[in-house]
Amino acid sequence: MPIKKSDLYASIWKSCDELRGGMDASQYKDYVLSILFIKYVSDKYADAGEYAPIVIPDGSSFQDMIKLKGQVDIGDQINKKIIAPLAEANDLRGVIDQTDFNDDEKLGSGKEKVNRLSNLIGIFQDANLDFGGNNAGDDDLLGDAYEYLMRNFATESGKSKGQFYTPAEVSRILANVIGVEKADNPSLTAYDPTAGSGSLILKVADEAPVDITIYGQEMDVATTALAKMNMVLHNRPEAVHDIMRGNTLADPKFSENGELKRFDYVVANPPFSYKSWTNGLDPKNDLYNRFEGFGIPPTKNGDYAFLLHIVKSLKNTGTAAVILPHGVLFRGNAEGKIRQNLIERGYIKGIIGLPANLFYGTGIPACILVLDKEQSGSRDGIFMIDGSEGYIKDGNKNRLRERDIHKIVDVFREQKAEGGFSRFVPNDEIQKNEFNLNIPRYIDNSTEEDIQDIEGHLKGGIPMRDVEGMNQFWDVYPGLKDELFSPLREGYLKLKTEKDVINEVIFSYPAFVSYSKELAKLFTEWKQAHYDSMKSIDEDVRPKALIAEIAEDLLKRYRDKALIDPYDIYQHLMNYWSETMRDDVYIIVEDGWTATLEPVRNSKGNIKKGEFTCELIPKELVINRYFPKEHQEIEQLKQQQEEAAQVQEELEQEHAVEGGLLEEALSDAGNVTKGELTKRMKEIKGDEDFSDEFEVMKSYKTAYDNERKAKSSVKKAEKELDKQVIDKYKELTEDEVQTLVVDDKWLPTIKFHIDGEVDAISRSLTQRVNELAGRYDKAVVEIDKEADELETRVQSHLEAMGVV
């Protein structure tokens, strides 16, 4: 069976549970990732020969580690026989040997430690976790699993301990706004001065079309080791020796001829507002002149210290993207002066505001500063994006969606102005604001208030202002406004149609029907363009390339279409890819177009007799296509069963009470039972005094018998249908499997979600028209008149009744 991504993630994360005893997440990640590293290099390089980038010494593979399970000295043996030789053979001392597998304090002692480590190894022993044999391995299956692990570790590490990880979504934005996708020479270089686990610099390397050289520096010993392992896990073992440990500000490791080494691309997520940035450093006498011409940052806040280090580390043609807290945009004094100098030199190309609570270790909002030296001489402003509202809740954190990432990158690359989201801010405007770059000063993303019109309430009539506020609809549906509204008086309109037919008028209007068909055609054309490629998936297909191609084309087709957000359409496809389609594609890449039946297991892992499942083709699809008649018959039997049960319930509610006609059929527990019912019916049968009771009981017994009969028939029919379905699974041809997956599973689901977005257009229009019609339906004077009339009528009735 192929490795399902979702199963791979769950399986590896399960290993973490084995170590949750007395350890913090920031510590137990080192054990899990060390085992992952050994498993990965063993699978990938054990039989790769002498030219493999990683050498696996005899006796030091994962298979040798398996042999240690259950041994009393398992921890010591892992240290000495597995990790030490592996580190020695690959010059990885100080990297993979940082974690002590014989630490009684963390792992427990005696049998506890033996069991814990044995269980941990056993989880990675799963046959499905074959990192060397996976056909889609070049699609970075392991890399994605690593990201999943890191996200979970960071989530559970708590404040300050999760800073080793930059969320992958944010990393992708940084990698995509520095122009690395245009890299055309392997001699180009990228650098992360605060590398953490290395995930950010790896994202930059992944976005480059050529193998650029990457560098990184990290201060924490364990995190540096993690970053080096990460290089190997992401197929970049040559980068291990370019990840250095040390204090970037006090002791930068990359220099040439007494000056900082310059790079083509720099990305960084420095520790926010680092208070101890001057440790080991005299800013006034900086050997590398990083602060000269800009100013020295505040003693207790290192945000600009890292930023100026990056500026100095950039080539004159270089670009950089740096994550910093929002405070760098508006704080004054020394930071204000540095910010002014950066602006006046034209180094800041753009600012991207991010949602709050994205990062692990802090909940404060952050921004991305994009630096560009090459165009600095001609730069006359800064492009700003307010992306603070684009996110989804994910546990106790916020997370960028695929649509949020894509939109930010697209808008930034195109330098496209969009109301409430982005604009180019000229330098003279920035200067008038005293070089304050706080995004809300330049972009207003607030929602326009829905104002209640006093005159409209007093005199009646729908304000023209509110109707013109729907111009985005009237532009697409010309003439519809005049179909719905007519002039009442200056500045006010009245509804031409009755309120209860507003929806009918809108939905039947020719321009509305025409545009709905136009949007539907977009999906049909997209489907036709990719139908054959979907049905042609084989072992040579790269899943990530596949989804990139079809998703980009879907986005392109809906781009610039009125009333609909193309990024919402794109997100629906990406959601389905993540939830279902991705796993399906990996299964097909590994196994081909085959339907493999698997037994259903209970929570204890035991097989449920007679129950089966098929991951690729749920049995409902087979039933709907090949056995619709049988399915309909079962549904009819279930309907009969439900109707009979409902009759019983109604009779019980009315008569199964004290003094009721079913009281004598109640058991001691207060339920109507067949035994008591039958017994009572025999007692009163033919007795005219109890005829009503007998008839009710007869009706109840009939319903009871009908329900039992229908239930039995359902069970029998379902059993027979299951047998037919299993037989059908076994004889499915490749063409039939393709049809079931593509025509019956993927495309209808995607279309359903996209249709939902299109339907939302009509809902928003009809809801707004109905809202305005209801709001200004009657003027206050009309309501007062009605109230006076009702009051007069009531008074008249009271007088007639002799009540004063």
Number of strands: 18
Termini Cα gap? 89 Å
Order of neighbouring strands in the sheet with most strands: 3-2-1-6-7-9-8-10-13
Envelope shape:
globular
Give the number of helices: 28
Name the poorly predicted regions. none
Mean pLDDT value = 90
Structural class: alpha/beta
Beta-strand fraction estimate:
5-15%
Main sheet overview:
9 strands, mixed
How much helicity do the residues have? Answer: 40-55%
Based on the model shown, name its key terms:
804 residues, alpha/beta, 9-stranded mixed β-sheet, 3-stranded antiparallel β-sheet, 18 strands, globular
What does this structure look like?
The protein has a 9-stranded mixed beta sheet with strand order 3-2-1-6-7-9-8-10-13. A 3-stranded antiparallel beta sheet has the order 14-16-15. It has a two-stranded antiparallel ribbon with strand order 4-5. It starts with a helix and ends with a helix. The longest helix is centred in the C-terminal third of the chain and has 42 residues, at 734-775. It is of the alpha/beta class. Strand 1, helix 9 (199-207) and strand 2 (213-218) form a beta-alpha-beta unit.
